[in-house]
Design brief:
Layout: E1 2-9, E2 21-25, E3 32-42, E4 54-66, E5 68-70, E6 83-86, E7 98-103, E8 117-128, E9 136-144, E10 149-158, E11 170-177, E12 183-191, E13 194-200, E14 210-213, E15 219-220, E16 225-229, E17 232-244, E18 247-257, E19 271-280, E20 283-291, E21 294-298, E22 306-309, E23 326-331, H1 333-339, E24 342-347, E25 354-355, E26 362-372, E27 378-381, E28 384-392, E29 399-407, E30 435-438, E31 444-446
Parallel strand pairs: 2-28
Antiparallel strand pairs: 1-29, 1-30, 3-28, 4-26, 4-27, 5-6, 6-25, 7-24, 8-23, 8-26, 9-20, 10-19, 11-12, 12-13, 13-14, 14-15, 16-17, 17-18, 18-19, 21-22, 21-24, 30-31
C-alpha cells in the first residue's frame, strides 16, 4: 500500500479521481478552517476489482465541461462577485444548462478503439447555488411551444404604446389642430422605426377617416358609420388589411374623444380595434424543479436524456455549511458501456445564474472512464474521491493537507505516475488555488501540465472555441 500526500491552497477548487476538495474565501473573517468532511477513499464502482485496484492492460481517461460561465467573460476576470450565466449547448429549449465533451480511447501500441472494453465509468458533478437554498429549488424561463396554434378573428382594442398581440407593430398617437383650432387624432403604426400605417379621424363627421399604408397614396375608408356617446365618437368601416409576422390584421373601428382642450384629453379615449388571423408558436413559462442530487446525461447518438441520481453514492450536499458547495456522484458504467466512445452531454445541474457572493457561483461535471485493450501496456489504476474544505478567512494563503492511501505501484523499476484532476472552481487572480504533491525527499512539488496556460473547450453551437477558458 502506498501513501500520497497533497497540499492545496485557497478559495474554491475541486478535483475528482485522486481526490475531490473545496477551498473558499471569506475576507470578513480572520482565520483559516480545514475540514476533511468526507475522507478520501477508493471509488471502484458497483463491481469492485481485486484490492480495489484495476490491474489491466489499459488506461483511464477523463472528460468534462462547465455548465456555468461569466456573463462577461475575460481571461483575467473572476467569478467572485460577478454575474454568471448558464452554458446551454444542446438546442433543447426545456433544459436550462448543458455542456458536452467527447470520450475517446487511446490507440497505444496500435490498439483499436473498437476493440476496447469499458470496465468502469463514474460521473461527478459539482456546483454552488444560493446558501440555504436546499437540495431542491424551482427555476422558470419562457420557451416557445413546438405546436402551431391557429388564431381566427381574434379581437383586440389597441391603446397607444400598448403591446399588440401577434405583431411587432407599436401604435402611437398624435393630436393636431385643424383650421378651426380644434384637436383631432392621428394614429401611427410603427415597425422597425418606420411608419407602416397612418389613420386620421377628422373633426368634421361628414368627412371620412383617412389612411395611408407605407408610401401608398392616402385613401378614404369605405362604408363609414359614425356614432357618438357623450364626448366619444366611434367610426366603423370596411376593414383595412395589413400583414405582419404571418398574420393578417383587419382594422375596422377607431375611437376618439371629442373634447376641445388638451387639458381634458384622456389617452385611453383614443383606440383602434382590429381582428387578427394567422398561426404562431406560442411562448409559455417552463418550470423545472432542480435537485442537486440529480443531473441529465445524454449519450452519443441518443435522442433523449437519462436522469442520473447520486442516491446512496453521493459525495456531499451541505446545507448552510461550507458555502453550500456540493458534489454528486453516480456509477454510469452500464450506460457508457452501451454507447461507447463519442459525445456525452450533461444537462440541468442544479445551478443559478446571476451575482454570487465572495466565493461566486460555479457548476461543472466530469466523467472518469477505465478501459482495457489487449494491445496496451499494463497499468495499476486507483480511483479516490472525498470532500475536503479549506477556507481562507483573511484572503491570505492557507494550507490544507489530505492523505491518499491504498494505491499500488510496480514492485521494482521506475514508477510513472499519471494523475487525473477534475477542477470545479478557482480564480487565477487570487493568490493560491494550486495543488502540490509531497515527493520522496519530503518536498512539496507544484503540479502543472503543458496545457496549464492554454485550455480550449469546443462548445457548440458557438462558431468559435472558448479559447483559454480560465475563469468559469
Amino acid at each position: 500500500m502506498k501513501v500520497l500526500n497533497f497540499i492545496f491552497m485557497e478559495k474554491t477548487i475541486s478535483f475528482m479521481l485522486i481526490a475531490l476538495l473545496f477551498l473558499a474565501v471569506n475576507p470578513e473573517l480572520v482565520h483559516a478552517q480545514n475540514d476533511n468532511r468526507v475522507p478520501f477513499k477508493h471509488r471502484v464502482g458497483n463491481t469492485p476489482p481485486e484490492d480495489n485496484v484495476f490491474h489491466i492492460r489499459g488506461d483511464f481517461t477523463m472528460i468534462g465541461n462547465t455548465n456555468l460561465t461569466l456573463a462577461e467573460y475575460s481571461k483575467t476576470g473572476e467569478n467572485s462577485l460577478a454575474k454568471m450565466k448558464f452554458v446551454d449547448v444542446d438546442g433543447d429549449p426545456k433544459t436550462f444548462n448543458s455542456s458536452s465533451a467527447t470520450l475517446m480511447f487511446s490507440q497505444e501500441n496500435g490498439a483499436a478503439p473498437n476493440c476496447t472494453e469499458i470496465l468502469y465509468a463514474g460521473l461527478y458533478w459539482a456546483g454552488k447555488s444560493d446558501i440555504g437554498q436546499g437540495l431542491n429549488f424551482d427555476l422558470t424561463k419562457t420557451i416557445t411551444s413546438e405546436e402551431l396554434k391557429e388564431v381566427k378573428n381574434e379581437e383586440q382594442v389597441i391603446l397607444p404604446y400598448e403591446e399588440i398581440n401577434h405583431s411587432s407593430f407599436t401604435m402611437t398617437l398624435s393630436l393636431e389642430y385643424d383650421e378651426n383650432g380644434l384637436i383631432y387624432p392621428i394614429y401611427y403604426f410603427w415597425k422597425d422605426e418606420e411608419v407602416q400605417l397612418i389613420l386620421i379621424f377628422p373633426n368634421d363627421q361628414s368627412e371620412k377617416a383617412l389612411y395611408q399604408i407605407g408610401e401608398e397614396d392616402w385613401q378614404e375608408v369605405e362604408n363609414q358609420s359614425i356614432s357618438t356617446a357623450g364626448e366619444l365618437a366611434t367610426a366603423t368601416f370596411d376593414p383595412i388589411m395589413i400583414e405582419d409576422n404571418g398574420f393578417t390584421f383587419s382594422i375596422h373601428t377607431i375611437k376618439r374623444s371629442l373634447v376641445e382642450a388638451f387639458r381634458d384629453v384622456k389617452p385611453d379615449d383614443f383606440t383602434v380595434e382590429w381582428t387578427a388571423s394567422g398561426s404562431y408558436y406560442p411562448d409559455y413559462p417552463h418550470t423545472v424543479m432542480f435537485d442537486k442530487r440529480k443531473v441529465k446525461l445524454k449519450a452519443p447518438g441518443a435522442s433523449n436524456y437519462t436522469e442520473i441520481s447520486s442516491q446512496g453514492n453521493s459525495i456531499l450536499f451541505p446545507h448552510n455549511d461550507m458555502e453550500d458547495m456540493y458534489v454528486g456522484y453516480a456509477d454510469v458504467t452500464d450506460l457508457v458501456k452501451s454507447y461507447g466512445a463519442g459525445e456525452y452531454t450533461v444537462a440541468d445541474v442544479a445551478l443559478v445564474e446571476g451575482l454570487g457572493n465572495n466565493t461566486g457561483y460555479f457548476g461543472n461535471w466530469g466523467m472518469i472512464v477505465v478501459y482495457q485493450n489487449s494491445k496496451m501496456d499494463w497499468r495499476n489504476i486507483s480511483i479516490f474521491d472525498g470532500y475536503s474544505y479549506v477556507q481562507s478567512l483573511d484572503k491570505e494563503e492557507h494550507v490544507g493537507e489530505i492523505e491518499i492511501t491504498g494505491f499500488e505501484t510496480i514492485k521494482q523499476g521506475d514508477v510513472k505516475l499519471k494523475l487525473g484532476v477534475m477542477a470545479a472552481e478557482g480564480d487565477k487572480s487570487i493568490k493560491g488555488d494550486y495543488l502540490q504533491i509531497l515527493n520522496q525527499n519530503k518536498e512539496w512539488v507544484l503540479l502543472s501540465h503543458k496545457l496549464a496556460e492554454k485550455i480550449t473547450f469546443s462548445i457548440p453551437p458557438f462558431t468559435h472555441q472558448l479559447e483559454t477558458l480560465k475563469e468559469t
